[in-house]
Design a protein that fits this description.
The chain is an alpha+beta fold. It has helices spanning 12-19, 23-32, 54-65, 70-81, 85-114, 117-120, 147-163, 233-246; strands at residues 10-11, 39-40, 47-49, 129-133, 136-145, 172-174, 179-182, 192-202, 212-216, 219-227, 255-259, 272-278. The strands form 2 sheets. Strands 4, 5, 6, 7, 8, 9, 10, 11 and 12 form a 9-stranded antiparallel beta sheet that branches. Helix 4 (70-81) packs antiparallel against helix 5.
Length: 279
């Protein structure tokens, strides 16, 4: 009977089998202090665990299976040890938000893959071209954040201004499509420097709270029309950059895009976006 009992001093390999945590993961958790062995042989460096550590190891495995990042696993276990149920609930809610965002991302990928293969990588509806654009008087909002959050938010704020009765006697008209200007020289996931603008004409006040009145410089641009969901535009951006380089032009910054139709009026497969790279 004693031969079937788990010994108090459990080698790392057996502890790995019990908790379903790999030896590599256990070594990482030792380095971070998340789950350190009870004993470490000073000559061989071999790790040994205790029976009392099995519950913590199993809990870590469960949190890993639920997709919790390492930093959040540490916080969850700390909060549980302190009996801080509100913090545990908050951390679970934050993980649910991360899971929802990942589900949305995967659904977007699935939608992309369902499209006909001939269309998947042929989203530019016409050959790129060069065009000269004059300077524009615009209303704009600029800030940092994720593209997915900032762009719709800024467009909504500008639309609210034009529909607001507080404009009073201001005679302002929109003269072109809404546009986004990407001020970073690189793709950024969380702190992108983004400006949303709309060209206008008419009599404007000296100041509009939360909105900038400015003149956007013109110039020569490489232009292409992307057809399809906004999140798929990177393929068309890539083709436009390649075309620009082949024409002997050096792409400059900031690039911008114009939204030629309204996602509330057409399905996303019919969305048209003009991509513009200054040269």
């Amino acid at each position: 009977m004693s031969s079937t009992m788990i010994p108090e001093k459990i080698p790392i390999g057996r502890f790995s089998m019990i908790t379903r945590l790999t030896c590599k993961a256990l070594r990482l958790y030792d380095e971070t202090g998340l789950l350190s062995p009870a004993v470490k042989d000073r000559f061989t460096g071999y790790r040994y665990y205790q029976v009392s550590q099995i519950e913590r190891g199993v809990m870590i495995r469960s949190l890993v299976d639920l997709g919790f990042p390492l930093a959040q696993i540490i916080e969850v276990l700390k909060a549980k040890e302190q009996g801080d149920d509100s913090t545990v609930a908050q951390l679970i809610q934050e993980q649910r938000k991360r899971v929802s965002a990942e589900i949305k991302r995967l659904q977007s990928i699935d939608h992309f893959l369902q499209r006909q293969q001939m269309e998947m990588f042929s989203m530019i509806v016409a050959e790129p071209t060069l065009k000269d654009i004059e300077s524009l008087r615009v209303l704009s909002i600029r800030d940092k954040g994720t593209y997915e959050e900032v762009i719709p938010k800024f467009i909504g704020t500008l639309c609210q201004y034009f529909s607001s009765p507080q404009r009073g006697s201001e005679q302002v008209s929109i003269t072109g499509p809404f546009m986004t200007i990407y001020h970073d020289g690189e793709y950024r996931e969380s702190d992108a420097d983004v400006e949303v603008a709309v060209p206008v004409t008419g009599r404007l006040p000296d100041q509009i709270p939360g909105i900038t009145i400015r003149t956007m410089p013109g110039g020569r641009f490489a232009s292409a029309i992307h057809k399809g969901p906004y999140q798929d535009a990177h393929e068309s951006w890539g083709k436009l950059y390649e075309w620009t380089a082949k024409q002997g032009y050096e792409p400059k910054a900031p690039c911008r895009d114009n939204y030629l139709n309204d996602p509330d009026d057409v399905p996303e497969e019919e969305l048209l976006t003009e991509l513009l790279i200054p040269v």
